[in-house]
Specification:
alpha/beta; six-stranded mixed β-sheet; globular; binds NADP nicotinamide-adenine-dinucleotide phosphate
Length: 482
């Protein structure tokens, strides 16, 4: 992004801030939407928070995210605070207010999580919910459950006093009818219940949680247990507890599948991590700052970029027109880098038990594209250290283009229409070229596909030279590049 005199600054204050993923979200949206704002992390010590907020306003900073340890302390430095953030007791987004000459505080974590679960078809209305943990995130989760009309909320934490404090605060809010809609619901429906002493210690015995008699539970895992690298840890590991769970949401997103999620699934429940919560809290903040609606396709692209950062893959994906050299280059590259090689067309043919031409002829192109998507979903999970040569039409569907990026670094092998024609003119196995004017067909198809290949790739590699060694060297240079 080019910075000009009118570029606005947005950013993050916290300590530490070095590992934040928020620049991926915000700078990604600005780039995609052509909005002139740049997101920068600022490390701020606890005793400097008031001055930092004041200084940010004077520096004309449009908006800020706030992370640990300032989400609570920052509230004293704001000109006003949104009602939900006030009830949760934490602000993670500051929105500039010229009239009030300062920042208004919001909490976008809670609506971020709510947007994620709604997207997954999860409703909290009249449900029994268990929240594991009683830290900052837990309070936002309990508040969300209250607002969304959960029937009963069990709050379980190692330190019982912290769970009691959240429960008391939330019951007070519910009793006062402060939360919209809570006045009209049955008193018990708005209450946060805490079962006597909760001592979440690993390993814990069943008697610590067997007071929960309900089944069909929704459980939010809001402790820090299970976070990478301690991926084998979980606060409760008794399958009797997991048998009661219908849906488990782990607020941890690294690893992608936590031990908690594995246990929920192993006992028949559905399980989700909360990477989308991170995505959506950012999107909601961005929309507040810029007064825009971020389109769904841009959000989907940003989500892929987040996944690539959090769950990096070491595969190399080659895309491009037929005859661009994906198979030849791919095999030579695999040999040179000591990696495996897979051709998606060959893989599909083997699985379907028929050739690509037959699939086109008997089932149609649309069905073939669907098979490609299904294949990519499978391969992105199963492949590692592999060079993947793809069918020429694979990245044409935006869904496939995103899956390819999740699978590895994507290289577009480009060549002119004339070179492509020379390479494929004698090949009788290309169903799309069985026409009177194959060169004309190549030209028109390339015109349509080139921008899609460029959008789907990380790097463009010119292959017009036909020099395999030179092409491989160009790719290798990019592979080691950060
Ligand atoms: P926090 O305020 O530090 O709370 C940590 C919680 O974990 C407390 O309930 C704590 O219990 C519990 N805990 C820690 N060590 C434990 C142990 N050895 N045994 C049992 N319980 C233990 O953290 P937070 O801000 O609420 O965040 C909680 C988790 O949510 C973190 O993993 C964070 O990464 C994740 N999170 C994700 C998102 C997202 O966007 N997806 C957003 C926010 C948070 P005690 O009270 O007894 O210490």
């Amino acid at each position: 992004m080019m910075v000009s005199g009118s570029t606005r600054t947005i950013g993050l204050i916290g300590n530490p801030v070095e590992h934040t993923l928020s620049p991926v979200i915000h700078n990604g949206i600005s780039d995609a939407m052509g909005i002139a704002s740049v997101y920068v992390p600022f490390k701020v010590d606890s005793d400097g928070i008031g001055e930092a907020v004041k200084g940010a306003y004077e520096l004309n900073i449009l908006g800020l995210n706030v992370t640990v340890p300032h989400k609570n302390a920052v509230m004293a430095s704001l000109v006003s605070i949104d009602e939900d953030a006030l009830h949760i007791g934490a602000v993670n987004t500051l929105v500039r207010d010229e009239d009030k000459h300062g920042y208004v505080g919001y909490n976008t974590d809670m609506p971020g999580l709510l947007r994620q679960i709604k997207e997954d078809g999860i409703s909290l209305k009249d449900r029994t919910v268990v929240v594991l943990g009683a830290g900052g995130a837990s309070k936002a989760v309990v508040y969300m459950c209250l607002k969304e009309g959960a029937d009963k909320i069990y709050l379980l934490n190692r330190t019982i006093d912290k769970a009691k404090k959240i429960a008391d605060d939330m019951n007070e809010i519910a009793a006062l009818g402060i939360v919209k809609d809570s006045k009209d619901t049955d008193a018990s429906a708005s209450k946060v219940e805490h079962v006597e002493k909760r001592d979440i210690v690993i390993p814990r015995s069943i008697k610590d949680y067997n007071k929960i008699t309900e089944n069909n539970l929704i459980v939010f895992q809001a402790t820090s247990i299970g976070l990478s690298p301690n991926v084998d840890e979980v606060v409760i590991d008794d399958s009797e507890f997991y048998k009661k769970i219908d849906t488990g949401i782990d607020l941890i997103y690294n690893p992608a599948e936590t031990k908690f999620m594995k246990l929920v699934k192993a006992n028949g429940g559905k399980a989700y991590n909360a990477l989308k919560m991170l995505l959506y809290q950012g999107v909601i903040a961005y929309e507040l700052w810029h007064n825009v609606k971020v389109p769904d396709d841009i959000i989907a692209d940003i989500y892929v970029e987040l996944k690539r950062q959090v769950y990096p893959k070491d595969n190399i994906v080659l895309i491009g027109f037929m005859g661009s050299g994906k198979s030849t280059v791919g095999k030579a590259l695999a040999k040179s880098l000591n990696m495996d090689f897979l051709d998606t067309d060959e893989y599909i043919e083997e699985k379907a038990g028929m050739t690509i031409s037959d699939i086109f002829e008997k089932k149609g192109e649309e069905e073939f594209r669907r098979i490609e998507t299904e294949t990519l979903c499978e391969l992105k999970e199963s492949l590692a250290n592999t060079i993947i040569s793809t069918g020429g039409g694979m990245p044409l569907r935006s869904e496939n283009a995103r899956l390819l990026k999740e699978t590895g670094k994507v290289f577009y092998l480009s060549a002119s229409a004339g070179i492509i024609y020379d390479r494929v003119k004698d090949d009788t196995k290309r169903p799309l070229l069985m026409v009177d004017d194959p060169y004309g067909k190549i030209c028109s198809m390339m015109k349509e596909r080139k921008p899609l290949y460029e959008k789907a790739c990380d790097y463009v590699i010119d292959t017009n030279s036909n020099d395999i060694d030179e092409i491989i060297e160009k790719i290798q240079i990019k592979v080691v590049e950060k």
